[in-house]
């Protein structure tokens, strides 16, 4: 019988010792620690500008429907403008503000798409109006309007599979799921933990109105971030129940808590991930990387687009030649469409290759 030599035995013992140290370090890692993302690939890209035809108001969001850029931007009469994505020419303006059939009483609307449908969330009326994409582009009235019940107020509501909706309340819960008729199915009220925060009131104030959310196209998951610092939360949805699957903590926010338990953001707080757009494979986010004192007003632009997989792992980063404020992913053309500013500081569309 062949016996192990002493050097061979030592190598085996050394391997076990290394594995023990790795496991021990992982088990002892502070779950509240922050670690900047490290990307497998970093790419510098230039934005190709597309001049916007007849657009004078601030653009709140953009999306891609076929060969069109849909911009949520109130022009004084309509809440949404639709442009040719190749040349920026105005095709139509829709969602008229008024009190007639199919009109809205407020220009504060949120647009979401899923498959061949367009969903408009009216925060003032807590309702979701549904259109086919063709009807929407023509300016037709919605074929369905649903009012979300139970909770006090919502910032947005996004479509899920099976006619359900995911809403982001500002009171009572962080997220909620509603069935097709708007009735509440379940809610979720857990937030990321911070060593400085010991009560739910402060963390609620920290996230209220600051959270960005997008749903995976197949409706099985969604992702959330807060622009203060940088934390990426990935949730799964199954049988109407929300479960936190992964939390990646990249940059710690800097703040103090005042006498009313409200969060006061410090001037040197990093403004991190701001916009989220998803595909079945990836999560895309605009990353600012600036401190709060460097950002004026609401124009918190960034020159980076970060890409993560649905396990929260960094995949790729794009270093852009100019700052952007909005983002939409076009999987057909394999381009990212953006809102940026030209040399006259006017808002224009643009794109870069993925």
In the residues, how many domains can be counted? 1
Question: Helical content, roughly?
Answer: 10-25%
Radius of gyration: 23 Å
- What is the number of beta strands? 26
- Order of H and E elements: HEEEEEEEEEHEEEEEHEEEEEEEEEEEE
N- and C-termini, Cα separation: 60 Å
The mean pLDDT is 89
Shape: globular
Sheet-strand content, in percent, reads over 45%
Largest sheet: 8 strands, mixed
CATH topology: Neuraminidase
Oligomer: single chain
CATH homologous superfamily identity? TolB, C-terminal domain
Could you say which structural class the secondary elements and strand pairing correspond to? mainly beta
CATH first level: Mainly Beta
CATH architecture: 6 Propeller
Uncertain segments are 1-5
Helical stretch count? 3
């Amino acid at each position: 019988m062949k016996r192990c030599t002493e050097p061979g035995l030592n190598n085996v013992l050394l391997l076990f010792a290394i594995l023990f140290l790795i496991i021990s370090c992982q088990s002892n890692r502070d779950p509240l620690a922050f670690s900047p993302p490290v990307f497998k690939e970093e790419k510098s890209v230039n934005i190709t500008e597309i001049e916007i035809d007849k657009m004078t108001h601030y653009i709140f969001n953009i999306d891609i429907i076929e060969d069109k850029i849909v911009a949520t931007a109130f022009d004084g009469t309509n809440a949404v403008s639709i442009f040719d994505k190749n040349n920026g020419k105005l095709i139509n303006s829709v969602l008229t503000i008024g009190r007639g059939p199919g009109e809205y009483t407020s220009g504060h609307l949120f647009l979401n798409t899923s498959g061949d449908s367009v969903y408009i969330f009216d925060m003032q009326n807590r309702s979701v109006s549904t259109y086919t994409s063709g009807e929407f582009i023509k300016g037709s009235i919605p074929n369905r309007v649903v009012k979300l019940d139970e909770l006090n107020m919502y910032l947005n509501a996004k479509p899920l599979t099976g006619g359900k909706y995911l809403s982001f309340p500002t009171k009572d819960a962080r997220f909620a799921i509603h069935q097709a008729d708007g009735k509440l199915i379940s809610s979720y009220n857990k937030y990321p933990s911070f060593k400085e925060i010991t009560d739910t009131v402060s963390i609620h104030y920290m996230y209220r109105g600051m959270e960005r959310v997008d749903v995976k196209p197949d409706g099985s998951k969604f992702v959330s971030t807060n622009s203060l610092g940088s934390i990426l939360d990935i949730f799964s949805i199954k049988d109407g129940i929300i479960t936190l699957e992964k939390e990646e903590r990249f940059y710690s926010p800097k703040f103090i808590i005042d006498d009313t338990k409200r969060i006061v953001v410090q001037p040197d707080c990093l403004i991190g991930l701001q916009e989220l757009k998803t595909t079945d494979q990836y999560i895309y986010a605009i990353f600012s990387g600036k401190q709060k004192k460097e950002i004026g007003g609401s124009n918190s632009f960034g020159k980076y687009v970060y890409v993560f997989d649905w396990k929260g792992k960094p995949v790729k980063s794009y270093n852009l030649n100019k700052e952007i404020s909005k983002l939409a992913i076009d999987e057909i053309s394999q381009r990212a469409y953006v809102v940026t500013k030209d040399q006259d500081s006017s808002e224009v569309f643009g794109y870069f290759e993925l």
